[in-house]
Amino acid sequence: MRACHPEPTAAVTLFSAALAASSGRTARGVGLVASAVLAGQLSVGWSNDLVDRHRDAAGGRADKPLVGDGLTPATVAAATATALVACVPLSLACGRRAGFTHLAAVASAWGYNLGLKATPLSVVPYAVSFALLPTFVVQGLPGAPAPPWWLPAAASLLGAGAHFANVLPDLDADARTGVRGLPQRLGAAGSRGSAALLLAAGSAVAALGPARPWGLRVGVLAAVGVLTSAGLRRDDRTAFRTAMAVAAIDVALVVAGARLD
């Protein structure tokens, strides 16, 4: 379980389930969305550690179970394949159009694992996959409607910001092993600034895009500003948790807005 990147896996699954619940789905519908997203996230997390195991070993990443705990590649490969196979029917059970949207989001994340992470395009899979995630949730409703423009836009910006925050703890190890994604090219200061800017922009779109009480909008933006300023200045492990906290605030805003409407 530690090899699946449990924090982002749990966060993305819970956020998706919350959006599904706010849309008026039945308990079965919410469960299908959560199960599909969980299976996809497990496949992405496990494949990430599997593909990177040699690089992680060269970088001295003893915190990785495949490096420091004796977890075998065969075990992770079997878990990855199981999750990926399960993701297909679970996604399609949410509706054909929605299912293919979710599978495209998972494929984009796999593209990151399989090579894009080491290129200047490393942020693209994050932006694409996070935009497609709420699109998948909305398309699963009767009639497969398109989401409002601001929902995938906000999610895309938040996902891109999370990418820069997520890479911060690994910059030194990445430098030793030749990973040259966009954050590595910008360096620690550039990545912190990019994360802050993108998280703020995503929150602004989420707050200002739909019709909401102005007091709620101002309160959310103020909370995000304080959290981002404090969290991104602390240690690099805190930076990614800050990104997840900002995303949680924005999801709560969307859920509250759905109930208000």
TrEMBL record:
Keywords: Membrane, Transferase, Transmembrane, Transmembrane helix
Major subcellular site: membrane
Family matches, as CDD domains: PT_UbiA
InterPro entries membership: UbiA_prenyltransferase, UbiA_sf
Any one Gene Ontology molecular-function term assigned to this protein's record: transferase activity, transferring alkyl or aryl (other than methyl) groups
Top-rank taxon, per record: Bacteria
Protein name in UniProt: 4-hydroxybenzoate polyprenyltransferase-like prenyltransferase
Pfam families: UbiA (PF01040)
Localization in the cell: Membrane
GO CC aspect terms: membrane
Transmembrane annotation, as ranges: 74-93, 114-137, 149-168, 189-208, 214-232, 239-258
Membrane topology: Multi-pass membrane protein
